[in-house]
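Field log, afternoon session.

UNIT: design team B
ACTIVITY: writing a sequence onto a fixed backbone
BACKBONE:
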């Protein structure tokens, strides 16, 4: 693989901070009761979103699940429209109707996030099939957790994607937990990538906290998928530094485990790499400070934005004009 330029690495660093800080604001406002529903943060897992999405173009299709904020930002959606959606504003991606777990930005290829665990997998296969029929070189990518692999539809999707040679990139964020249950407690299959071989699918397991390793692996995977070489299952081993959702007291994790997870922070990891490559610490601090200001401004603008008009509740529910009942 060609070595990434310093400019690209700095962009990755900026994107990691953008996700971290935007989600920090979600946490802050959720604690203040300003976020409807239960937001799920990807704190600690940002390198997967950034490393994978750097290999996708706006025309590629993307699907995500309940932990979607980072994927959508990394795909290039406007952080203001994302944040406004999370707090239910009319200026949000879905005019405030979807919220944190239902981010859609079709213009940017984000065809949807869903709270239905594994429900996004067959939808992504469908989009990949459409891409194959359209023949314009698009691919579909889908992010899901290790818990999703226990659903039958995960296996059905692998089977159909393989049979039809679909241009589908399956990205598993293996954070070792499904809600409050550790992977050891819900599966005897250690590595999610092991599910690929029986279906004849290419797979790789990478360190998901190393944005460069994720980028490298995703580049190889996307080249095969886009080149009509068939689907690829990329398993990214990662850790969530926060609870399952905002407000989770995490009684199922020891203090030692949480401390060890914090040691693996993907942002600090890239920071160490960049300093080693000669980027002054001050330059990295300036990038983080600039993104912090940018996100604070986004949040204040979003908070001032109007909520949807209750009279418009039926708008966008159906594209068809429904007949009036007699
Ligand atoms: C079909 C379905 N079953 C159960 C749930 C409840 N649920 C929400 S998140 C979750 C665990 C998901 O774990 P994983 O796929 O590993 O994702 P993570 O939360 O670790 O990112 C479950 C079981 C759900 N939302 N949908
Ligand atoms: Mg998980």
């Amino acid at each position: 693989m060609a070595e990434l330029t310093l400019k690209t690495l700095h962009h990755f660093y900026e994107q990691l901070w953008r996700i971290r800080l935007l989600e920090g604001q979600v946490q802050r406002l959720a604690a203040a009761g300003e976020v409807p529903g239960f937001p799920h943060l990807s704190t600690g897992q940002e390198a997967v979103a950034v490393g994978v999405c750097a290999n996708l173009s706006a025309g590629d299709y993307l699907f995500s699940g309940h932990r979607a904020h980072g994927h959508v930002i990394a795909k290039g959606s406007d952080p203001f429209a994302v944040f406004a959606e999370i707090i239910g504003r009319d200026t949000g991606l879905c005019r405030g109707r979807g919220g944190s777990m239902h981010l859609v930005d079709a213009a940017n290829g984000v065809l949807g996030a869903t709270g239905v665990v594994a429900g996004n997998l067959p939808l992504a296969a469908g989009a990949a099939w459409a891409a194959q029929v359209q023949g314009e070189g698009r691919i579909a990518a889908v992010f899901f957790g290790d818990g999703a692999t226990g659903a039958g539809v995960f296996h059905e999707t692998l089977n159909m994607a393989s049979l039809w040679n679909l241009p589908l990139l399956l990205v598993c964020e293996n954070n070792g937990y499904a809600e409050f249950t550790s992977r050891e407690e819900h599966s005897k299959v250690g590595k999610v990538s092991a599910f690929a071989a029986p279906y004849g699918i290419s797979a790789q397991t990478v360190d998901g906290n190393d944005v460069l390793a994720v980028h490298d692996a995703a580049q190889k995977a996307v080249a095969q998928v886009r080149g009509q070489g068939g689907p690829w299952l990329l398993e990214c081993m990662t850790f969530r530094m926060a609870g399952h959702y905002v407000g989770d007291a995490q009684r199922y994790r020891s203090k030692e485990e949480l401390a060890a997870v914090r040691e693996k922070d993907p942002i600090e990891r890239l920071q160490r790499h960049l300093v080693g490559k000669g980027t002054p610490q001050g330059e990295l601090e300036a990038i983080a400070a600039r993104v912090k200001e940018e996100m604070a401004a986004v949040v204040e603008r979003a908070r001032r934005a109007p909520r949807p008009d209750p009279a418009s509740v039926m708008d966008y529910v159906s594209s068809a004009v429904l007949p009036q009942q007699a």
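LOG NOTE: The first strand starts at residue 61 and ends at 64.
NEXT ACTIVITY: expression trials, pending approval
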